[in-house]
Write a structure and sequence with these properties.
single chain; mainly beta; Jelly Rolls; five-stranded antiparallel β-sheet; four-stranded antiparallel β-sheet; 9 strands; 43% strand
Amino acid sequence: MLLDYEDQVCRAQAFTATAVSASAIDTISASSDMFIGRRMAGLFIPSVAAGAGSTHVLAVIQADDAALTTNVEVLGSITVLAAALTVGSMHEIPVPQGVKTRRYLGIRNTISSGTTTVTADAWIVPQDEINKYKSFPKVVHADNN
């Protein structure tokens, strides 16, 4: 799978408690608003595995500021046990169409039931660019006899 640097919101970021991604995607103009006409998802890929004992709520969020602190709203979220956050595992956070209303987008990781740290990369990408959704047309050979 090829991931675009422009869609990446954090790289090797250590999440030790509730925290938002180091960067945000600015969707001020229609030309940079990747939500127009496409289903989107957050993609969270650990680069250092989380230890056992905690629960992580991974969310795609929107806000009015690039620091992702003003008027924060959750667009989609999933709950993942720390044991499932292994190196290279992909965790998709689906975002329903038509819910984005704010300028900035990012990822938030809320850690509960423990103090486990996870280091990860995260992107906000079109859902059809995630490998498990790739599909190819079925080739049917017609017999002309």
